[in-house]
């Protein structure tokens, strides 16, 4: 029996099963089995494995990476061509783009790499079309733009989300607040710090037994679902922010546009007429959470043209030094910082000081 047949069988059984307290245990087991089969489908067992397909793995350049995901012919290539000035082949038939086309834009001093990925078709997570490679590249992005046709958006949105979820990409979500630690002995130690609506000790044990884990500490710090627990046990999930780009707004009325503007994480644009690009770029910048740090050589004015761009969460002075050169931290004595992260301007700080956006820094070496 092939993997796809097994997956289909489990999905059918889950669809047949009623959801209530009595069946929660059974559904949890089925979800765990499904997750395991999905993982085997993405990374087949056995030797070297086939090639990844030509032209897919693009070298990471710039400070952040943004991928365009969408069905064929929703205007991904037009959007890339008009944003980045890169020529990605555009035509009025489906599947024009066959490999990844990279482009780079400069925005607020940061270099942002844009990837035009080939169109996704239904069943991509099961290896149909070029889907597996497309989604593998999407996993490495800092932000995903799901490009939708405004005339048929919601069906497509659900399908694409479903394909990406099947590959372990979680959109606009935070990692579940679950502590999970494997042990050598001592059985399964289950604690919940708040009331659980779905999981209990037995369900947790049976899900872990499906993964052949019989000794572990599990701490649930929020009201979690079986899916959250499976995500933590699998450990290969990536949490990526996502913006829905509704293209082709030149074909709808103003009233419809007002409704679209109320949808969260959504930006309506027209790639062909270049409408509303500034709004899109601003939203991309917000979702990337990049921090710009300006450098100041001793006795000179700060250089505001070329900031050093750091990702959110890696913004200490030490990270700043490593971004420039890894030997810089060995010679580091202290730094002078001007900006919103310090009380006095300038303030003398050590390597653990956390910088904020648009701070100015001067390094003093030993």
UniProtKB/TrEMBL annotation:
It holds the Pfam family TGS. It comes from the Eukaryota. Keywords: Cytoplasm, GTP-binding, Hydrolase, Magnesium, Metal-binding, Nucleotide-binding, Nucleus. One of its GO terms (cellular component) is nucleus. Residues 289-365 form the TGS domain. It is found in: Cytoplasm; Nucleus. The keyword Metal-binding applies. CDD domains: DRG, TGS_DRG1. GO terms for molecular function: GTP binding; GTPase activity; metal ion binding; microtubule binding. Residues 64-289 form the OBG-type G domain. One of its GO terms (biological process) is positive regulation of microtubule polymerization. InterPro entries: Beta-grasp_dom_sf, DRG, G_OBG, GTP-bd, GTP-binding_2, GTP1-OBG_CS, P-loop_NTPase, Small_GTP-bd. PANTHER family: DEVELOPMENTALLY-REGULATED GTP-BINDING PROTEIN 2. This is Developmentally-regulated GTP-binding protein 1.
């Amino acid at each position: 029996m092939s993997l796809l047949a097994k997956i289909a069988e489990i999905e059918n059984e889950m669809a047949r099963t009623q959801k209530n307290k009595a069946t929660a245990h059974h559904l949890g087991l089925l979800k765990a089995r499904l997750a395991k089969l999905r993982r085997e489908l993405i990374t087949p067992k056995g030797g070297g494995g086939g090639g990844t397909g030509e032209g897919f793995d693009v070298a990471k350049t710039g400070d952040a990476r943004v991928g365009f995901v969408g069905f064929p012919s929703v205007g991904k290539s037009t959007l890339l061509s008009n944003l980045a000035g890169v020529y990605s082949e555009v035509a009025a038939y489906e599947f024009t783009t066959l490999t990844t086309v990279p482009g780079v834009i400069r925005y607020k001093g940061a270099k942002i790499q844009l990837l035009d990925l080939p169109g996704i078709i239904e069943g991509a997570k099961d290896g149909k079309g070029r889907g597996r490679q497309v989604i593998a590249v999407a996993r490495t992005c800092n932000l995903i733009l799901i490009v939708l046709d405004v005339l048929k958006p919601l069906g497509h949105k659900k399908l694409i989300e479903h394909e990406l979820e099947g590959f372990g990409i979680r959109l606009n979500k935070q990692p579940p607040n679950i502590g999970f630690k494997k042990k050598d002995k001592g059985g399964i130690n289950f604690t919940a710090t708040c009331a659980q609506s779905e999981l209990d000790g037995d369900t947790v044990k049976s899900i872990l037994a499906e993964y052949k884990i019989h000794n572990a500490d599990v701490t649930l710090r929020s009201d979690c679902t079986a899916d959250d627990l499976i995500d933590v046990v699998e450990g290969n999930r990536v949490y990526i922010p996502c913006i829905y780009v509704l293209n082709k707004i030149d074909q709808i009325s103003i009233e419809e546009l007002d409704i679209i503007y109320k949808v969260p994480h959504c930006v309506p644009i027209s790639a062909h007429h270049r409408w509303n690009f500034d709004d899109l770029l601003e939203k991309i910048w917000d979702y990337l959470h990049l921090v710009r740090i300006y450098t100041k050589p001793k006795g000179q004015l700060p250089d505001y043209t070329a900031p050093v761009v750091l990702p959110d969460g890696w913004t200490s002075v030490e990270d700043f030094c490593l971004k420039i050169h890894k030997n810089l931290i060995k010679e580091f004595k202290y730094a002078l910082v001007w900006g919103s992260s310090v009380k006095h301007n300038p303030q003398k700080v050590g390597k653990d000081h956390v910088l904020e956006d648009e701070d100015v820094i001067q390094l003093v070496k030993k």
